[in-house]
Predict the 3D structure of the following.
Amino acid sequence: MISCSDCPPIVLNKMIDHWKARKWSIEQLSSQITKKLSCKLCPKKNQNLFETQCPHENITLEEFFSWRQNDVDNNNPLRNYKPEEFSCYIDYKYMKDISPMEHMKAVDWGVFGFPDRDGRDSTIWIGTEGCYTNCHYDSYGFNLVAQIQGKKRWILYPPWESSYLYPTRIPYEESSVFSEVNVKNPDFERHPLFKKANPYIVTLDPGQVLYVPPQWWHYVESLEDSISINTWIDISEDSESRVSEAVTRCLVSLLLEARQQLNQVPTADDTWINPGEEILPLDANIQLLQFALTSSYHRDADKETNNQEKLCKALQNIPVRNKDTTLKGKRKWIGNTETENCKSTRMCVHDKGDNSDTVNFKEKLCSHDVDVQSSQGEDIPYIVMVERENKDEEKETSVKHQTTDLCRSSLETCSSHSTATLFEKLVKSVLHPKVIEATVKELNQ
Ligand SMILES: O=C(O)CCC(=O)C(=O)O
């Protein structure tokens, strides 16, 4: 089994021209999506506030659009925010919750190997120039992101550089691990290891789709008013992440209960929990942990469908080219020549030897002088690799999938524990001297 986390992000071009959603604009959507939506407003002078530090309002897309046109009436909740001072982001909205039914088929992930996925499995992000999502990684799966309107810049970091990014679970958001670093304006005294981080940077234009590999960190900012639509696709390693997430939820609910006992409940905004997160009581979370452990233990990896392989297959005949090569006439498939780079462009999860079903992305990306028998000129789909910014530094290739220390050695024993034993194990692992030592170090800083 090859880890799927050590392949780089790629940009897929001309693959969504057939989507109805490809033609959407904020103006058009403002008459079609009529529900009130929560949005975050962030002062433009500080591009690194956590969601818990920004004001939120409930608005219609129509109110958003007229605010952008400097046409606000007294009922518009945005009337007190100046567009030149604040960015506004209607982020992370499941289309099935907010969009009319006819929008569901306007999105179609079939060309990427997922014919059953459409708007019902997608999330939409609508924001002004300057809006952003702080640096984080998603605990589950991989991500396909389609840019619909406006340009967006993605700054990505590989999972093997996690220690340079100072991960934190506060503010808490289910399945998002945030970085403490202000990646746009880092404080190297507080985060000295960040100097070693190697970003991969890409600006997405409308019509492009970004593949974000599992557990890659990303900071995202809109360079123009923009719409994007994405789908997160599960992978077999998610069962491990589900255990980590369940442990985190148990600890968060435990600490929230402790906070209540200490009468430390905030009167205004809660800086521990991202807006919209619902925290269940501890006993419910312990049960969910039990369930995650049992499913993780009983899963049959051989029977699982491999979604990364599906993506590989869907992309196998799509040429890879350099950003700058033209598509006319005979051309090369541009891959990376160095063996080490080729290794890192692997996308498939299973190495099945001679099995002809196996799609070897690495070989494809490393092939050269391939004649392209195409008369379709500029209109055919193609792939562009997202490149690393600092190429001179050594790349560490060993990627460790995030696992929890709790029960690492014996999932079987652990999944059969009673609530009481599981809770005791949880408390013991939190009270582990190594954790205490790290805590003391943190408190002394
Ligand atoms: O587009 C954004 O602002 C963030 C998107 C994101 O974090 C994601 O798709 O995982």
Remarks:
- The longest helix spans residues 238-261.
- Residues 238-302+405-444 form one domain.
